[in-house]
Amino acid sequence: MPFIACDDGVELHYRLDGAETAPVLVLSNSLGTDLGMWEPQMPALIQRYRVLRYDTRGHGQSGLPPASYQVDRLGLDVLALLDSLGIAKAMFCGLSMGGMTGMWLGIHAPARFSRLVLCNTAAKIGTPEVWNTRIATVREGGMAVILNGVIQRWFTEDFVRLHPAAVQRISDMLLVTAPEGYCAACAAVRDMDQRESIAAIRLPTLVIAGIHDLATPAQEGRSVADTIPGARYAELPAAHLSNVERAEEFTQLLTDFLAG
Questions:
Q1: CA distance 176 to 173
Q2: Cα separation of 215 and 120, whole Å?
Q3: Taking a C-beta distance cutoff of 8 angstroms, is the pair 117, 150 a contact?
Q4: Which structural domain, as residue segments, surrounds residue 136?
Q5: Which of 102, 132, 147, 167 is the most core-located residue (most Cβ within 10 A)?
């Protein structure tokens, strides 16, 4: 299995799929999932792109962070992946925490990217009290104690009822996430506030929001799109993991935008 080592010693697990000569697209997962969350998009994407997926530090098969970190560390991890793989420039798509990472990259490393897609995300999410409560809950009881509440935020009731296998696959990702890695990521999200700084992004940007998203409500996505000059905005009739709940529509929005 392929790994690269970051400058702080954390090893990141990644996958590269698609033709070696195709344009590179980086996919960044949400809090509590791993690179497998993008499986619904992969059949279409690998026909056009060299797709680089990775497990965010503390998630999936990537290593645990040695200390607390901020959103800049998540952006630096992406740059470390690109550098190690000899990729000078790529497109980027991230959902939720992955979208926050994309915002940081659009602000601080715009020369490395040609397009940004920011999905089901916000420039600031929740309050410190909400995040601190979640961190304390996971530290005390593990991942299983938050499962039901998370699934209720990630999917609509109809999707949970009609697509149990898809929901179970995502639930399994959450349950095997290391509590230490999850809590460290929660703290980074808690401390992130990019509401003003994203106005500096000049890359072509698409923001995708879910109409039924309780974790990052659609108005937050609209605010991101309104703040980034020239950004496009689209909504899907989905909750938080819109790429899973509305996979076909999500993939179409993504590929249409990336194709220009």
A1: 6
A2: 8
A3: no
A4: 3-258
A5: 102
**Token pair belonging to 259:** 């194709």
Domain total of the chain = 1
For residue 89, how many C-alpha atoms fall within 13 Å in the half-sphere facing its CB?
Answer: 7
Burial zone of 126 (CB within 10 Å; 0-12 exposed, 13-18 middle, 19+ buried) = middle
pLDDT digits (tens, 9 = 90+) for 115-157: 999 999 999 999 999 999 999 999 999 999 999 999 999 999 9
User: The CATH number of the domain where 244 resides is what?
Assistant: 3.40.50.1820
